[in-house]
Amino acid sequence: MPTLKGWRMPWHPTSRPRSKLSVSTRSEMDLALCSLKRLPLALEVIGSAMAVHRSEGPHVWEERYKRLHLSNDPDVEKQMFKRLKFSYDELGNYEGEKLQECFLYVAAFPEDRWIGFTELRNCWMEVGSELSPTAIVNELERRCLVKISKSWRDEEAPGYITVHDMLRKLCIRILKGKYSPQQEHEKGCLFGYEWTSGIQDATFAKVSLISKNVGSFLSDNHVRDVLLLDECEGLSNVDDSLIDHIQGVKVLSLWRCYEIRFIPESISKLKNLQLLDIRETGVSQLPDALFSLTSLKYLKSTQWMPIKCNIALLPQLSNLEELELNVDSKEDPSVVDFTGISRKLRLLELRMIDGTMKVPESMGKLEHIETLDLHAKCIDFVSIVGLWELVSLTTCKICVQSVSRAPWKRMFKKSIRLKVFSITGVEDSENNDDTFEWLQLRYLKIRDIINLSWLPHRLETLEIDCSGIHLFNLDGSFPRLEKLYLTHLHIAQSEFKDDLAASLPNLKQLDFWLAPDIEWEHLPLFVAQLPNRPESLKLTGCIKRLLLPTERSSLQVKDVFVSSKKMQNDFFEPSDQMTDIETPGRISQAGRATLPERHENSTLA
To answer: What is the DSSP string of 314-349?
Structure first.
């Protein structure tokens, strides 16, 4: 690789022009980067590590070059790992060993696995870094040690993390050299490789047996800080013996350990426990002793089956920051009151299939909460009288099976950081036309709405239950709106304003769900007038044809999917108005997908 091109790659796009660097500094750069010997991964990783020194003098580059030069080894693989370890060592200059320790946790997960950001964040809890988890993973990505895939819910938040196989192997090598599995001390670490079956009475600080067979390891050894048993084989129970061997753990993850049926009362011995994850296990009841663990910050137990627990004891967990709970209230389908829950909560996800969930006024004082998710058969909002103070709220989802009433517009008026808001089954008890300052709102799902004038103009996804709407119109332009879902439409196709297309310049997906008693002659006229070609058009309900024959505008949509029982034979006529459709399809009355006949000089298939 030419020298000039080689030194430019690591700095883009954050580098400053080469001409502004001194001649001596440029020469040291070229010398250091030439020592990488055309190893693309090393070039990217080491270049990113050195980016923090781009404003420093040549002595820094010279010292780093010497370190790289001294790492020469006739073994190509060893040479690669030594060069990659250079970047790991540089992490120590950022936040001491804590950032290095966070990076080593990628070895706790199986090779080629997409690592959930929350999974890594849970592990980092015991490290005690002053940086936020998001800041940590962003710094690791900036140094090209990991790659972040953004969350589909929030494009600004990390979703999944991937790591190059060589970098994962580097972490395993570092851990093996730093903490030998044979050492019987409290600094042992068991990540990414099999243990020696003969090890007994050893104490490991961190153990990951994700997707592995546990065997007798847990009964023969002790774990001090972190125990990850996600999707673990051979673990049929959590008993008193296991608890005795892990009394010091801070993180215990049993996610998808399907055979585990119960948690013993002896869990009260885990006084240092900060995270317990029993999602998608067979656990059907939380023991009362669990609520004595006042150090607990994260309790995750949502699953496909509800779980029994004594809700009255929940206020004892005063340090909870995240709570995910699917409450089983079948035996006592009365009101379940969540008064007294931790004021430190940042995430609250509560689900109830039966009974009534009582939302106390105190829930509106959770000033740290960022995510609120409430699903229940019935929710009682009667005690709410004032404005809620959920000023940090970014995601809110409320779903009620039987219609409830609440002053929800007033409740969330101060939640100006909202990005995702979904509320179904809840009618506005005050029925006012208040406007909102939800300037960051990107996703909105709502029902029982008549006035659309208050909708934020930065929306990217909008889903509306149109049961109460008699005329559909949007005020102003929605330049970011890409997905529009309209359900329970009780209006005729003529009740859409003709100039609606101008409000939707970048629409990509449009869905119509007609009410059972509504029949359309054709699509609303604005659909054929959209300025940019949408990718998908879906229509469910009774519609006779796509376009009005007298209307000469062309339907410019890539894919069309229709589920209707009253299609006419000329449904896709006139064909010359649909030449831009690539994948039309329809569902016949029998439910079988069919395609219209091909027309000459048409892409209609």
So the answer is: GGG-TT-SEEEEEE--SSS-SEEE-TT--TT-SEEE
Give dist(CA 268, CA 289) in Å, integer.
5
Burial class, 344, CB count within 10 angstroms (exposed 0-12 / middle 13-18 / buried 19+): middle
By CB atoms closer than 10 A (0-12, 13-18, 19+), residue 552 is: exposed
Strand partners, 423: 398, 446
Strand order in the sheet with 115-116: 115-116, 158-162, 147-150
The 3-state DSSP class for residue 483 equals: strand
Omega before 574 cis (within 30°)?
Answer: yes
Dihedral (Cα; 593, 598, 602, 604), 10-degree rounding: 0
CATH number at residue 428: 3.80.10
| pLDDT recorded at residue 87 | 82
Residue with tokens 């192997």: 169
Largest CA distance in the chain: 85
Pick from 251, 298, 252, 301: nearest CA to 280: 301
Domain range holding 516?
449-605
Regarding whether 602 and 467 lie in a shared domain, the answer is yes
Choosing from 95, 111, 136, the residue where a domain stops is 95
d(CA 64, CA 88): 13
What pLDDT is stored for residue 92 in this prediction? 80
The pLDDT tens digits for 11-24 are 333 333 344 445 45
Q: Is residue 240 part of a domain?
A: no
Tens-place pLDDT, residues 312-340:
899 999 999 999 999 887 655 456 777 78
Amino acid, res. 263? I
* Residue 472 shares a structural domain with residue 560: yes
